[in-house]
Amino acid sequence: MNRNLKFLLASNVIFVLAGAILVPVYALFVKSIHGGAIISGILFGVGFLASSIAGLISTRLHDGVKFESHILQLNFLVRGLAWLAIAIFPSIPTLFAVQIIVGITDGVGSPVFNASVSRYLDPKKHVREWGVWQFWAALMTAVGSIASGFIATYFGFQVLFLIMALLAFVSLGVYIAGRKSKE
Fold first, then answer.
1. What is the pTM of this model?
2. 115, 127, 144, 150 - which has most CB atoms within 10 Å?
3. Domain ranges of the chain
4. With contact defined as beta carbons under 8 Å apart, do 144 and 19 qualify?
5. CA–CA distance, 9 with 128 (Å, rounded to integer)
């Protein structure tokens, strides 16, 4: 596997872990700040709507863009800051803002990530290399999902969001380290 691909996948696997920590306990968090199931569903919907719109717009702009690595770096940074904002300002309005921000970063960042992975794939091993990515993403989703309940129960939601933010910043560091090592 190409060295650039290893760093790209490693940074994103950590990022997947960060996101997976939230999903199983999201509705409980929303309830803890005086929301409910309806608000939780609307929040998730707003995030996916923002992702869809941003993805539709950004895919028309990305081809031929020379700053893809900056988009990925910004994606890690902005999402980490958004998760940090929830830890500091846990409220329904903050969640709406964060869902929109996370949705936009997903809609803009995912096509760039997929294009970057595709660029580094070995044409003779592309199924295996995508399979490695799928394995690690699913494994980190499982680990994050299991950990989320324990983190929220024993340490609270604030620590959960701090861990998510920290993992996003670690993802950024791994990605930057991978970019620097090839220079």
1. 0.91
2. 144
3. 3-181
4. yes
5. 13
Nearest to 73 by CA among 181, 168, 165: 168
Distance CA 122, CA 131 (A): 13
- Second CATH level (architecture) for the domain 3-181: Up-down Bundle (1.20)
The mean of the pLDDT values for the chain is 91
Dist CA 179 CA 7 (whole Å) = 8
Give DSSP secondary structure letters for the chain: --HHHHHHHHHHHHHHHHHHHHGGGHHHHHHHTT--HHHHHHHHHHHHHHHHHHHHHHHHHHTT-S-HHHHHHHHHHHHHHHHHHHHHS-SHHHHHHHHHHHHHHHHHHHHHHHHHHHHH--TTTHHHHHHHHHHHHHHHHHHHHHHHHHHHHHT-HHHHHHHHHHHHHHHHHHHHHHHHHT-
What is the per-residue pLDDT across 121-164, written as a single tens digit (0 to 9) for each? 888 998 998 899 999 999 999 999 999 999 999 999 999 999 99
Please say whether the beta carbons of 129 and 121 come within 8 A: yes
Mean of pLDDT values over 27-54: 94
Separation of alpha carbons 142 and 54, rounded Å: 28
User: And the tokens for 55?
Assistant: 């993805």
